[in-house]
Amino acid sequence: MHVARTDTPSPASGQAPRRSIRPLVAVLLISLAPVLAAVLVYFNPEWRPQGSSNYGTLVEPQRHIPDARALPLTTLDGRPFDLSSLEGKWVLVSADGAACPESCARKLFVLRNTHASQGKNVERLARVWFITDDAPVPDKVLDAYQGTIMLRADPRLLARFLAPAEQAPEPQAAGLVAPMWVIDPLGNLMMQFPADADPLKVRKDIGKLIYNSRIG
User: Fold this and answer.
1) Residue whose C-alpha is closest to residue 98's, from 127, 65, 126, 76
2) pLDDT tens for each residue of the chain, 216 residues long
3) CA gap 9, 12 in Å, rounded
4) What is the pTM of this model?
5) What CATH superfamily classification does 56-212 receive?
6) β-strand 180-183 against 188-193: which pairing, if any?
7) Residue 95: beta bridge partners?
8) H/E element, 197
9) Cα 82 to the chain's mean position, in Å?
């Protein structure tokens, strides 16, 4: 009796069917799309919706933090500090003399409370107070603003980074000690808040930055 043969390959042949990687590629692209869009919009302000607004003023062009040779910094106990070690975090910045008058204490208060109000995102931020002289910091200031990184800096070198338009010649120059600033996680000085800034508006701006950012 004649038996018909078929061309169907045997499962035992050891040849598994080839799978397409296209679905995996599609999933990866969909996952990365929001991150790429956020980065593109962040570095291209003209692409942002016209209705968006900030209380703080965007620093244009952004200035990258100086290296330790261009801006030597020391902690209160005299150890050198490299500001680039804070890259990866949003950094809230103020500058003033060590005596820290009422205007200085207000800035430290605003930045401390803004930081503390970020809830689950609190670890994404750091606070820096640049001290523009060699005087001792009062104990009451040290106690009230624990958690703030306090760094001594030459005010002239510091002004080149924070307030180059002012070229602040003295520590008390308004262009250096009046505002507050934000450094982004890539190490760029990117926003400045005015003197006597509204604490609620500062908090709102920082909250928006943290919420919308995929960096830091």
Assistant:
1) 76
2) 555 555 555 555 555 566 678 777 777 778 777 666 666 655 565 555 544 578 999 999 899 999 999 999 999 999 999 999 999 999 999 999 999 999 999 999 999 999 999 999 999 999 999 999 999 999 999 999 999 999 999 999 999 999 886 544 444 466 899 999 999 999 999 999 998 999 999 999 999 999 998 887
3) 8
4) 0.73
5) Glutaredoxin (3.40.30.10)
6) antiparallel
7) 130
8) none
9) 16
Give the tokens for residue 178.
Answer: 């009046």
Residues in the chain: 216
- Which element (helix H / strand E) includes 144? helix 139-144
Q: Where are the domains of the chain?
A: 56-212
d(CA 59, CA 40) in angstroms, rounded, equals 17
> What CA–CA distances, in Å, run from 112 to 116, 121, 129, 189, 203?
6, 14, 11, 19, 10
Contact between 197 and 203 (Cβ < 8 Å): no
CA distances from 12 to 8, 16, 19, 142, 164 (A): 12, 10, 19, 76, 76
